[in-house]
Amino acid sequence: MQSADANVDVLIRGAGAVGSSLALALSAQGLSVALLGREEAPRGPDVRTYALNASAVSLLRELRVWDALPPEAIAPVYDMWVAGDAPGARLDFSAWQQGVSELAFIVDAGALDEQLAAALRFAPRVTRVREPVSARLTALCEGRDSASRQARGVEFAAKAYGHHGVAARLASDQPHQGVARQWFRAPDVLALLPFNRPEPGASHGLVWSVPAERAEALLAMPPEDFERELNDATQGSAGRLQLGSERAAWPLMLAAASEVSGEGWVLLGDAAHLVHPLAGQGLNLGLADVACLARVLAAREPWRGLGDARLLRRFARERYLPNLAMGQLTDALQRLFASDAGLVREARNRGLTALNHLPPLKRWLTQRALGL
């Protein structure tokens, strides 16, 4: 990296996956970038996994990050099935049926963060700074609790679900065979994502969305009791599951910023929008923001400045509908499957079964999730 400069093209506040990817993308355009954020290992074990679609993988490959990841940090998803809370209510997706090689990739979040940090160390126009510096454009990538967003008076209308996402790494006595599994069980949603740690080919990343009180109880349980609850919920469909890590949890919400750009500033990733994790689209949306902003800045007129409000509105307009649509879709699914009303339960389970027999609609949904 070059030495710190008091005047750069872009200041990026937030050095997570979105901010780091943006720094690499803009550096590749020849822009000078100051990256404000801590480069440190997470406290305690990192149990996070990312579900990345084809568009996100394409961006990371362009940034020369994807192919540098260790093979054990990546697990392809070839098939996915979604089960309702009634016998026979099930929806299946197959990469083969969709005409793609994989539906998604499950990635070790810690490994991706490490590789992004390694790439940044060799980026010639990126400087890590400890304090804000003067810049033509400030990109806010600080996550859901962005202080810079709040300082600019941007409202962040949040709808708390009253649920927490419980995450952990799991080992199974059966190979996962690249199958992702999800159960909609009012009021909770349980997902098992194929993974290669701690056991190559026989591990899963767990994301279990449950009411806050239930999450507290699950975190407090002895490991053997937690495993019993988990195996009762999955009914052995993924084999006998055991904890392979500590457990972690975070509150779930739907949120969107009232504005995502202005004169000299722009919001990306979780600082701009939050969605329920049931579709695994959080980081995909953030990386789509990165790709869009990089494209808009690269195509600007020679006389237009990087922080020009009209230029940044092009980014805001392009990202508005995709981010809104994904937020509304995940919110509708959460409300639909959280309800325990008899008529709602019957309708949603019938709907799953009917959708499973409508290949064109399944293909459309898959293309949206893949970012195609």
Topology:
Layout (H helix, E strand, L loop, with lengths): L6 E7 L3 H11 L5 E4 L12 E4 L1 H9 L11 E4 L1 E5 L6 E5 H4 L5 E5 H13 L4 E4 L4 E7 L6 H5 L4 E17 L6 E7 L2 E8 L7 E9 H9 L2 H12 L6 E3 L4 E10 L3 E2 L2 E3 L5 E2 L7 H17 L10 H30 L3 H14 L3 H12 L2
Parallel strand pairs: 1-2, 1-9, 2-8, 5-11, 9-17
Antiparallel strand pairs: 3-7, 4-7, 5-6, 10-13, 10-14, 10-15, 11-12, 12-13, 15-18, 16-17
Helix pairs in contact: 1-4, 1-8, 8-9
What does this protein structure show overall?
The protein is an alpha/beta fold. It has a single domain, classed as 3-Layer(bba) Sandwich (FAD/NAD(P)-binding domain). 37% of the residues lie in helices and 28% in strands. It contains eleven helices and 18 strands. The chain has helices at 17-27, 54-62, 95-98, 109-121, 147-151, 212-220, 223-234, 282-298, 309-338, 342-355, 359-370; strands spanning 7-13, 33-36, 49-52, 74-77, 79-83, 90-94, 104-108, 126-129, 134-140, 156-172, 179-185, 188-195, 203-211, 241-243, 248-257, 261-262, 265-267, 273-274. A hairpin with a 6-residue loop joins strand 5 (79-83) and strand 6. It is globular and about 60 Å long.
CATH class: Alpha Beta
The biggest sheet, with number of strands, parallel, antiparallel or mixed sense and barrel status, is: 9 strands, mixed
Please provide the count of β strands: 18
Q: Structural class of the helix and strand makeup?
A: alpha/beta
Helix content: 25-40%
Brief synopsis:
The chain has helices spanning 17-27, 54-62, 95-98, 109-121, 147-151, 212-220, 223-234, 282-298, 309-338, 342-355, 359-370, and strands spanning 7-13, 33-36, 49-52, 74-77, 79-83, 90-94, 104-108, 126-129, 134-140, 156-172, 179-185, 188-195, 203-211, 241-243, 248-257, 261-262, 265-267, 273-274. It is α/β, with parallel strands linked by helices and 372 residues long.
